[in-house]
Amino acid sequence: MRPFSLAAVLAAGIAILTAIGSAKPAPAADLYKILKTAKVGGEGGFDYISADIENRRLYVPRNGPSGQLMVLNLDTLEPVGAVAGVSAGGAVVDPKSHHGFSTTKPMTMWDTSTLKVIKTIDVDGRPDGIMFDPYNERVWVLSHMQPYATVIDAKEGTVVRTLDLGGGPEQAVSDGKGTIYVNISDKANVAVVDAKTMTVTAHYDYSSKGSGGSGLAFDAKNHILFAYFRMPSPTVVIMNADNGNIINTLPTGVGVDTVAFNPATMEAISAENAGSMTFIKEDSPTSFTVEQTLQTVAGAKTLALDTKTNHLLTMTAEFAPPPTNAPPGPAGRPARGPMVPGSFSILMVGK
Description:
Layout: H1 6-10, H2 12-21, E1 33-39, E2 45-46, E3 50-52, E4 57-63, E5 68-73, E6 79-84, E7 91-94, E8 99-102, E9 107-111, E10 117-121, E11 127-133, E12 138-143, E13 149-153, E14 158-163, E15 169-174, E16 179-184, E17 189-194, E18 199-205, E19 211-219, E20 224-231, E21 235-240, E22 246-251, E23 256-262, E24 267-272, E25 276-284, E26 287-295, E27 304-306, E28 311-316, E29 345-350
Antiparallel strand pairs: 1-29, 2-4, 3-4, 4-5, 5-6, 7-8, 8-9, 9-10, 11-12, 12-13, 13-14, 15-16, 16-17, 17-18, 19-20, 20-21, 21-22, 23-24, 24-25, 25-26, 27-28, 28-29
């Protein structure tokens, strides 16, 4: 995750109004809304959220001294367990081996049935983003410093190799057939990776449109990528996944972090730190519109898609006012006080 500047957050209202202005009107019954807010509490910071759709579990890593991997029921949002003592930013599971992995250093491998730690795996860099590739049951661990990618065999829990992606990666997606795409944040391009040979075969440049890449979504049916970036104004670049040709660009809300594509609804969906969620409708492989901008809650910047119910899950918390004369946070982020106890919440979005 990359930090957000104060100027970007203050520009949220303008960006959201721009997105709404270009949105396609929809009947009220067809609009997304917050269906449920579950205050699940717990201590520690938060970053990524992920869903195990087959086993109906939601994984919420918490970091800090009291870190743990919270495990919730994906349908009810009720707690069902936890992997204690794991201070992580992200988590993924392999449904075949029933192994889970958390972005700690060293990486933590655990049993999804018992929630017991199996082993730790030494890795270099600073583990941040994480993706499971079903093509060959491998876990891709992304880092903003070298090595940019570490590939782990999900069955054995061993490092297969490391890979230089040509820059700091944010979100990665797999086509499930041997190709992986990665949004390279500091280079304004999408790296194309052959999952069989684990080599970078191309970089799709979008630097003419903006910089500060973040989320990446993929329409597998039509081979279309949705690459999001934050500067100079939040935008998504829609491109052909086979050759990198840019098809269109559309505005999003401020502070896009993770995104998803729902093949059932043909929508690319982004969660945004300023407190919004943007839905882009793919009307055809060459026609796209901003369908809806939903107001959520500030800080709800990552999401997980439940393709069984078409629900989106995101999370945030309340924070006390900062102390008087408190210095700004990293990269100019506004200062904030401690998290309000018990305020950490999961939001379920749907129709």
